[in-house]
Amino acid sequence: MKNLQHKYYESYNDNSHLLPGLDISWLKKIREEGIDHFKKYGFPDKSVEEWNNHSYKNLTDNYFKPHSDSKFEINSNLIEKRDSKCSIRVIFFNGKIINIESDSLPEGVEVNSLTYFLKNNSDFLKDKISSPKEYSEERLSNIIDSRPQSIVAVNAAFHQEGAVIHIKKNVKMPGYIELLHIGKYNKNTMQHMRSVVFLEEGSECEVLENIVNDTENDLAFTSNVTDINVSKGASLSFHCFIKGSSNNIHINNIHGEIHKDSQFNSTTIVKALGQVRAENRINLLAENSSTKIDMLLLGSKDALLEGLTKVKHAKNNSTSNQNTRVILNENSKASFQGKIRVNKEADGTLANMSCKSLLLSNKARVNSKPELEILADDVKCSHGVTVGNLSIEQLFYLRSRGIPEKEARKLLVNSFGNIILDDLNTNFIGRAKNIMLEYFND
């Protein structure tokens, strides 16, 4: 591992002159902190608690060089026609921005690439892109463990592009914004994206991050890190749909800072044949802030999926609801880690966490680990985990009504997953249900 860490360190030193923003002192500092962190800790392995459910041997046993421009052509089938309710769509291919499609937008809405903002308004991004240490959490032992953040550190060091969304004070964004990431990578390459979403006071916005990797990919390592800040009285819905190929290792990180009287809702749907890890770390920083985090993991063949949600209640009267559903078939494996932390100053907290898993084969495996850390007295917190198979009684009932077994199984699986999908805004529910349909056809 040490030799591998040194290779990445050398790669950073050899290629840093190609990275955007190195003439910006605060960003250069973040990049250097990132590569120093990785040089010290390397990729997280099973000795790190948050990463001890599954092996990432493809990640830890291979060296991935930064992806360079290739001769790959974009698969036009992966770019659907822009939805009429999508006011603006930013399209990336292999980490490069290729198009921005937009309607006429109200004043106070800024959407563009990270490199555009670094060239034209870098001061706006200062303090909005976090260093890896900002992602580290304090344990009950008062020890801060930074090892789980090595992926964020690699992203901080090597990111080249991303999206920036800025909604100004009291602006209500019409429709929604889509960030479409399409990837087809050379063998043993890596690509890292860094995005920022900032809502000023009283503003509202909906965002869909749509990550699609070409099914013909060779082994590649990708990561997306999104720093989110929702100011006082603002409301953000940020949804992430991830479709990964069998050779893709993708790690997705969302880090949210939610302020007084503000709301953050997120739905993550993962349908992958390779390895995907989706993390949501949300800090409710002030009174009457709230978050709702839903996740649906769909695994088949040899997929390895992980979902992690962590919510910290820092002040009085904040609310959180975490709801995860896992559906696994064939040899797929998944894990879920959920955590609610209630600080001593957070009386009046209402927090709920639920994870239910459905195993469709005898070889599928799931591991669920809910956690509560409650340091305040006047709180209402709950968590629950279940794992099961399709109900024989329900299946028999449907078949006795003349429904073929395959269709009966599909109805029951759909019903299980629709708990997540039915809470989506109508802008996204059709696309989400198409992902479920693709899952049945894999």
Top keywords for this entry?
2 domains, alpha/beta, globular, ten-stranded mixed β-sheet, 442 residues
Write the layout of secondary structure elements.
Blueprint: H1 2-15, H2 25-41, H3 57-60, E1 65-66, E2 86-93, E3 96-102, E4 109-113, H4 114-120, H5 122-125, E5 137-138, E6 144-145, H6 150-158, E7 163-167, E8 176-183, E9 189-199, E10 204-213, E11 220-230, E12 235-244, E13 248-258, E14 263-272, E15 275-284, E16 290-299, E17 304-313, E18 319-328, E19 333-342, E20 350-359, E21 365-374, E22 380-388, H7 392-400, H8 405-421, H9 426-441
Structure characterization notes:
By secondary structure, the protein is α/β, with parallel strands linked by helices. The chain folds into two domains: 2-68 and 87-389, no CATH class; 395-442, no CATH class. It has nine helices and 22 strands. It has helices at residues 2-15, 25-41, 57-60, 114-120, 122-125, 150-158, 392-400, 405-421, 426-441, and strands at 65-66, 86-93, 96-102, 109-113, 137-138, 144-145, 163-167, 176-183, 189-199, 204-213, 220-230, 235-244, 248-258, 263-272, 275-284, 290-299, 304-313, 319-328, 333-342, 350-359, 365-374, 380-388. Strands 1, 4, 7, 9, 11, 13, 15, 17, 19 and 21 form a ten-stranded mixed β-sheet that branches. Strand 2 (86-93) and strand 3 form a beta hairpin.
Query: With helices defined by DSSP (H or I, 4 residues minimum), what is the helix count?
Result: 9
Number of domains: 2
Poorly predicted regions = none
Structural class: alpha/beta
**What is the gyration radius calculated from CA atoms?**
21 Å
Portion of residues in helices? 10-25%
Largest sheet: 10 strands, mixed
Number of strands: 22
Termini distance?
35 Å
User: What is the overall pLDDT average?
Assistant: 92
Strand content: 35-45%
Global morphology: globular
